[in-house]
Amino acid sequence: MDSALIPKGVQRCSLGKFTLLIAVVGAVLLWGVYAMLLCWIKGLNQTNMNDYYGFALWIWADLAVIALGGGAFFTGFLKYIVGKDELKNIINYAVLIGFICYSSALLILAIDIGQPLRGWFIFWHANVHSMLTEVAFCLSCYFAVLTIEYIPLILENRQLNKVPFFHHLAHNMHGIMAVFAATGAFLSFFHQGSLGGVSGVLFGRPFGYREGVFVWPWTFFLFTWSAAAYGPSFTLMCTKILEKASGKQLVKDNVVDLLAKISGWMILTYIIAKIADTLYWALVTAPARGHTLMDFYSNNPVYGIWILVLEIVLGGIIPAIILVVPGTRRNGYLRMTAIILGVIGVSVNRWVMVLQVMAVPVMPFDFWAMYYPSWQEVATTILPVAYGIILIALSYRYLPIFPQEPELNPVD
Amino acid sequence: MKKAADHTKPKRYGMVIDLDKCTGCGACMVACFAENNIPFKKDESEKLLSITWMRVYKLSNKKKYPDTDICYLPRPCMHCEGHEGHSPCVSVCPATVTDYSTETGIVSQIYTRCFGCRYCMAACPYHARYFNWWDPVWPKGMEKMLSPDVSVRMRGVVEKCSFCYHRYQRAKDKAYVEGRTDVEEEEYQTACTQACPARAITFGDLNNPKHKVYELKQDPHAFRLLERLGTNPKVYYVSSREWVRKSGDNYLKHEEPGHIATKH
Amino acid sequence: MKIDRRSFLSLGLGVAAGSVLSPLPWKLTDDLSIWTQTWPWTPVPKDGAVHYVHSVSTLCSGGCGIQVRKVDDRAIKIEGMEGYPGSDGKACNQCLAGIQKLYGPDHIQTPLKRVGNRGEGRFAPISWDEAMSMVAEQLKKLRTEGKSQTLGCVVEREYGTIPQLFKRFAKVYGSPNFMTMPSYLDGYEQIFKIMQGEEAIPGFDLENADYILSFGSGLVEGWGSAPRMFQANSLWKEKGVPVVQFEPRLSNTAAKATQWVPINPGAEAILALGLAHVIIKENLFHYDFVNRYSARFEAWEDGQGTEQKGFKDRVLDRYDPRYVSRVTGVPSSQIEKIAREFAKAESPIALCGRGAGHTPGAIFEFHAVHALNGLVGNINRKGGVWALPKPDYIAWPEPALDEVAKKGGDTPRVDGAGTETYPAASSLTHRLPAMINDAEESPIQVLLVHGANPCYCLPDTETVRAAFEKIPCIVSFASHMDETALMADLILPDHGHLEKYQDVPAPEGLSVPVIGLARPVVAPLYDTRHVGDTVIQLAKAMGGGMADSFPWKNYEECLRKTLGQHWKTMEEKGWFSPDFSGPDWNEAFETPTRNFVFIPERYGKDTEEAGVSPIEVEGDPITFPMVMIPFDHVRIAAGPVGNAPFVMKTIEDTLLRDKDIFVQVHPKTAGKAGLEEGVLAVLSTPKGSAKVRVHVYDGIQPGLVAVPRGLGRGSGDEFMADKGVNVNRLIGPVEDPVSGLNAAWGIRANLTIA
């Protein structure tokens, strides 16, 4: 029925099946929307956040999706600036994922703040010293860039493309995409960094605080680096999921291998830097403030040293090695394991930098603050996931996301 | 950071709290609630959701019976000076809601500008900042007790101790009318200082040698909370008990309070 | 088709671009943000003319001098009144939050008549006329039936014109049953009677004392006038005055003290005698005072001519530090050291009255502690204990009593106070419930309750309730709903504490006499009536001699006339301090020998053989292996009036969490019972059981379960009601055989996991 909208040369499931998928995911989405409305109408008392836990699940989700969405800027950077042309076969998908991640991040922020209707004060009364101001500006700008990157994709829809204006617009936009990719990469470096700075500058919170260069704490660079490193892994993971879901190979192995290799090397270099940072923090920064490393990992029911091991060893060193060594990288299972570990690793890093920062007592007579999210928080956090699935499903169905798909899956 | 007005010397208002005298009675909290239109809910026993600009913490030496000892520690906003006014919260607020005044040393908060991102709360190691998770509600008739000197905060914004800034304004207005440029020590006192029945809290200009706090803060037993973080707070505590002084900051095993060089 | 879509899309884009470029969305965005800044449901306090009214707050037993900041006709904040004796510019939590009681939802707004069952809390508003005639009718009927002595009055304290109006009312009506609520002051009252022969109230010159021995008194936890005690405590810190606290639990007072000496609960009297032993043995006592102004220190002859051992020998014989150490758990070296320091100090003072003094305790304790003060001669001296005359400014003419009044007035009191058994007691209200429950027909037929809350404050509240069930008519004059008002048949609501004139005599424990003046800060908000007016009008309604005994037009006239020339001073200053210079030792004592008597008459016989042993608490040790002790916390009002919302907000989360009260136990005790921090447990005593949470606390003697007083209010606003457990429900009175006072300091208990 909707075959006129489906790109040429590819096969898609029946509209009924597709509608069913959308309906199921849509129900989850509506649940999330309901929770979101509760938070907006009744206020943030709907959450389990409190005065010790002012930042919680949402901010973690925010940081995590932005880190994972880092695949967009870094792949763009590799393709357009570095000139890795093979990546054109995955760049569309990377952009789409980036778009989803960043729009979700903005939505989450709009739910997270206590006064959404005057959230724009962050621009109007901007405080240039604040990392969050930097985040807001770069995030919004980069979201605009991602939108610009995503628009030509939409315009390539079979029907839209028939409109000459759109056709030319899409064509011309593709032509100057390098400029946007460069802008995006530049913006991303900053907002990924400033997100890292969010906890890194908290000199009142020895667990999050890091020294650094000029106004930027080390976490500034580590966040950019890790987003660049793990973002492509997430793109690959999403590709794999979509391939599983559609039952088709969508991207050629050499492209996957290239991206995995780059991701691997980035993770490797990142994790070395991260280890160095952790050591300096544990041996110099924290002790200067009267804390030993184990102060941050004991006397509480959740945050043991295991979390550091999980983040650095399981989520860093192991995936780095697997992805760097050609033999293991080319093994599909191992590669996927590494990618998943990497995604977990970076998510744990963001979790630690938000939730554990809040949990660790600073005043000696204070206590570990534990927190679990309310259903409203969970629902609003799942909301972007549902929204992402729907957007991917729609885009995959109606837009030529994967240039190699017709070649890899010829239709009779 | 606002520049000091030319005609008055810059002040650094601060407190010295004598923990030997503090009995933990909570009068400072009650006076603060009443002075600053602090809302109250049916259940205020969940302290992480309870707005208390002034909060009295209970410290313990963690020793076994009968060597156990406890001490109360009232914690207002520390009005950190940080490094040149970069207090932990001021530098992170994205919308310039909170500011360090170089004229008074008071960290301000503009409720109508705050949009509730709570970054400042994450930044404050003293947990001196509170979020309005709920709309403030006064039972019918009880809104009569609201003071017009302090605006009632709407849901969704962060609030904190202001050192009763409205009292400073009132004192300044009075001084202006009387043709003076400066307010006297006793003309500007916070509600908690005024209320403390143990007279444990002393408030004044830390820069002014004529103010009592100037002398008191130099007590060899004076300390500030978490000095090592470089927050440079303007609330000093005095305790004759070593374990109490040691509870004011984090120390490694071999370290002794008083022997650690601090940044400020 | 293509054209259509194209034009449609173009139009859409055009509209979008047009809107963005128009001022509309920007204006809307701005308007929305302004709306969030001025939400109509967020109140905006009205501005107005500011002024202050001075008054005295009656919410606490201390009587804090206050100044109320007003904006136009609204009271907005209470602060301390500078210069007011005792509180001097400060006020306690309860009084500071007093405005919340004024405007709060549990302020009774009109006379109420019970329509539901007793205690059910269902009332219907009635008119004042109706209410007054109902009470008058009841009272007339009773009097005609010759049962005038079955009228009972319960007030909180005896002094001041309002309680005295009640007392006078009862007297001319023909009933001796004017009762006050129990307090440690009852102990002091009896001690002054039997050791100094005086009708007096205690004054402690704590500001000038230089060594403080506190036998479990919560000096910074509500004992005496709280703000005064806090200031005294600070003064001690400044002057380096040693404070020694004997208590089984590390209370705030113990933590503030120079030295906390843990002691077995109930053994305070023995410890005091142990200290006396050391002082006497080492000849450290005040020779001049003991030799010249005291009696029965040495051996003496009783009325029958038999020689009796003096205080000296009794103490030397029985209370040597090793024995005392065994009983009290205090090492003998410490007993000796403290005794020496105490005796060698210039103005040492020993104090008693457990916690905030809500229960009196055994007379032995008062005796032993006061004997310590006698030994060091610190009676009626700077820095010592003063016997202050009872407030005597109320000099109303003796009322003429008719036959009924005389006859009724001569009957013995229901609570047994002033009878042969308990001659020194003036009120033993805690005994009333049992008397009523044990009788066929309640010996109290009409009960008037003002300012007191016996259904909450008396021990064993279940028994109290049962007794109140049996009283045919209960009239409450409460201004706020409380547990007792809930049991009433009629509520004739008094004005709130900020709405009326009232004299407030004698801030508790102050060493100079003071009369404060509470005055209306705001005009009465509701259809309430000054309780003084109500009593006067009731008397007038009774007619005859009763009406004549209340010659005043209204309460205000009564108050003005009573205060006479002082009224003006009080109006201006807020208080008045009668001249008082305590008599010298040679004139100070009014015992038959005009001396300070170390061994009072009755007391001597009873303890001659057995000596003083620790007061045993109720319950059998096998079923109840632990001992529950109530404790006072400065942020919880345990008196007739509960916490205001602001004060509720200050309660620590280790005392109350949501609706659960926390009880404190030592880690060992918790461990033995398999209890951990925060778990739900059942606390049971011979009187009942309750669901509690466990707070494991190092600062308490193993085997004890400490329960905060003042929670578990069965009425009041939503901020206070039904939170935690009223400890009075779990504890019963233990009668002191000599004084009749309630000597209970605890009760046997068990704590098991829920």
Number of strands of chain C: 30
- The percentage helix of chain C is 25-40%
- Please identify the top-level CATH class of chain A: Mainly Alpha
* CATH architecture heading of chain A: Up-down Bundle
Regions of chain A with pLDDT < 50 over 5+ consecutive residues?
none
Label the overall shape of chain C. globular
> Distance between the terminal alpha carbons of chain A, to the nearest Å?
19 Å
User: What is the CATH T-level topology of chain A?
Assistant: Formate dehydrogenase/DMSO reductase fold
Low-confidence stretches of chain C: none
Tally of helical segments of chain C:
28
* Helix-and-strand structural type of chain C: alpha/beta
- Please, how many domains of chain C? 4
Largest sheet: spatial strand order of chain C: 5-4-19-18-17-6-7
Computed over alpha carbons, the radius of gyration of chain A is: 22 Å
- Tell me what portion of residues of chain A adopts beta-strand conformation: under 5%
Portion in beta strands of chain C: 15-25%
What helical percentage do the residues of chain A reach? 55-70%
Largest interface: B-C, 65 and 74 residues
CATH architecture of the largest domain in chain C: 3-Layer(aba) Sandwich
Decide which structural class fits the backbone of chain A. mainly alpha
